[in-house]
Amino acid sequence: MATPHINAEKGDFAKTVLMPGDPLRSKFIAENFLKNAKLVNNVRGVQGYTGEYNGKAVSVMASGMGMPSIGIYSYELFNFFGVENIIRVGSAGALADNLNLYDIVAGIGACTNSAYMTQYGLTGTYAPTASYSLLKKCDEISEKLGIKLHVGNLYSSDTFYDDDADALKKWRKMGVLAVEMEAAALYMNAARSGKNALAICTISDCPLRGAETSSEEREKSFTQMMKLALETAAEV
Asked: Which residues partner with 206 through β-bridges?
């Protein structure tokens, strides 16, 4: 059942997969939150684990950086390994003035500068959105846990170093909350596969204000987001 990028058997992955960008964050979640976690994929060091959380099977596997990368992994999980739900647990840069480091954002939609959608041959502009069932459950759990969840549009960018110095300001003026690099492709793959997806991101930096976290902090300290995603996974 192995695919070009995932060396696993059907049934090795749970119905719900948490998907951080960083393989080390995948390992951290497995070792610190999952019971009886088993490594089920390590092709190219993109570590995937399956274990139990609150008595329910949950998997976690890294997506790598950018839409081409998460596009590959989420497509294979949805279409070859029986995965029904993918929850991205990533980092994002704050655009909205009311967002600060370590705040948590859920993407109800994902604007993008990517050409990813052209493969579908649509005659208009497609608007990638989260699955309402996952977003609703996540919002309910955030209230139960006392976690403030900011819900709104994300901007999934193909460029980390954009030649347009004012690009992020232009998205901010349209009410976009934060910038990241994966959600739009994940949402489109879920829609095309008839599956479910949600992106939850912790604010790791404020590019328009100059504040940022370290790589170690991004790997290990985004535990509130991880807890929120795992509680959501346990109830879907």
From this structure: 211
* pLDDT tens track for 81-110: 999 999 999 999 999 999 999 999 999 999
pLDDT tens digits for range 151-173:
999 999 999 999 999 999 999 99
Distance of alpha carbon 129 from alpha carbon 162, whole angstroms: 24
Q: Say which CATH architecture domain 16-233 belongs to.
A: 3-Layer(aba) Sandwich (3.40)
Domain boundaries, the chain: 16-233
Q: Is 205 among the residues known to form the active site?
A: yes
Task: Say which of 12, 22, 103, 205 is annotated catalytic.
Answer: 205
Under-70 pLDDT residues of the chain:
217-221
